[in-house]
Amino acid sequence: MKALVAGATGQTGQRIVKQLVAKNIATIALVRDLEKGKSLLPEAAELVVGDVLKPETLDSAIADATVIICATGASPSLDPTGPYKVDYEGTKNLIEAAKAKSIEHFVMVSSLCTSQFFHPLNLFWLVLYWKKKAEEYLQASGLTYTIVRPGGLKNEDNDNPVVMSSADTLSEGNIPRSKVAQTCIESLFQLQAKNKIVEIVAKPEAPEKPWPDLFANVA
Ligand SMILES: NC(=O)c1ccc[n+]([C@@H]2O[C@H](COP(=O)([O-])OP(=O)(O)OC[C@H]3O[C@@H](n4cnc5c(N)ncnc54)[C@H](OP(=O)(O)O)[C@@H]3O)[C@@H](O)[C@H]2O)c1
After folding, report:
1. d(Cα 201, Cα 219) in Å, to the nearest integer?
2. How far is the centre of ligand 1, averaged over its atoms, from the C-alpha of 11 (Å)?
3. 163 close to ligand 1 (CB < 6 Angstrom)
4. 3-class SS at 53?
5. How far is Cα 7 from Cα 50, in angstroms, rounded to an integer?
6. Does ligand 1 lie within 6 Å of residue 82's CB atom?
7. Which atom of ligand 1 is nearest the CA belonging to 32?
C-alpha cells in the first residue's frame, strides 16, 4: 500500500501523514508549499507539490500511490467561492485523478451535518452543502470509498472512546484530530469500512470498541 494524503499540511492532514509514517506505510504528502510541508511533516514522507484546483498537477502527484486520503478544506475567508472551489471542485478533481489511476480506496474527510442545508455552518459560504455534493460525487464515482464525517475537531488528544454511527444519525459532539486520522487510516484496513459513510465523535462515557466492531455497526 502507498498512500497519498491531500491537505497534508492541514491540522488533520499532518496527523494522518505522521500516523501513516509511524505505521511504516509509504506516504506521499500533497502540499501547495514545499517549505511549509518540510517544516511540518516527517522526513520519511515523500513531498509533492500540487493543488487540487489545478487538475493538471494531480496525475504526477498521485504517481504510484494505491490509496488516497483527502483532508483538504477551505479556510474561512471573505471569498464566497472558497468552499465551492476547495471542498467541491477540488475534491472532484482529485476523484477524477484517482479514477484515472485506478486508486483502490479513496477516503474523504467530510463533516457531521452535511445533509442539513439550514445548519448554521452553511453560513460559511455553504460549506456543508458543497461537502455533501463532493460526497455524492465520490459515491457515484465507482471508486471504493469511505466518507469520514467527524464532529467538531480538537487539536488536543484525549482518551475518550470513538463513537461511530451511520449517515445522518449524529448532529453534535467533537473529536480530537488524531482520532480522525486514526479512523481514516483504519478504514483502509477494515473490510467493513468499504463504501460507507461513518460519523464519528469521541465521548468519555462511550464503551471502548475494537475497530472492526465500530465499522461493522455502521449501515
Ligand atoms: N474545524 C472543524 O471543527 C471541522 C469539523 C468537521 C469537519 N471538518 C473538516 O475536516 C477537514 C480537515 O479540517 P482541518 O481543520 O484539519 O483542516 P485545515 O487545517 O484547515 O487544513 C486544510 C488543508 O487543505 C489544504 N488545501 C486548501 N486548499 C487546497 C488546494 N487548493 N489544494 C490542495 N490543498 C488545499 C490546506 O493547504 P495549505 O496548508 O497549503 O493551506 C490544508 O493543508 C476539512 O475538510 C474541514 O472542513 C472540520
Report:
1. 17
2. 7
3. no
4. coil
5. 10
6. no
7. 40
- Reported as a single tens digit per residue, the pLDDT across 164-206 is 999 999 999 999 999 999 999 999 999 999 999 999 999 999 9
Task: Report the nearest-CA residue for atom 38 of ligand 1.
Answer: 9
At 83, list the grid cell. Answer: 468552499
What pTM value is reported for the model? 0.98
How many Å apart are CA 119 and CA 142, to the nearest integer? 29
Give all domains of the chain, ordered by start, each with its CATH number.
2-216 (3.40.50.720)
Please list the residues that pair with 109 across neighbouring strands: 148
Spell 65-91 as b/e; 16+ CB within 10 A means b: bbbbbbbbbbeeeeeeebbbebbbbbb
Number of helical (H) and strand (E) elements in the chain, helices listed first: 8, 10
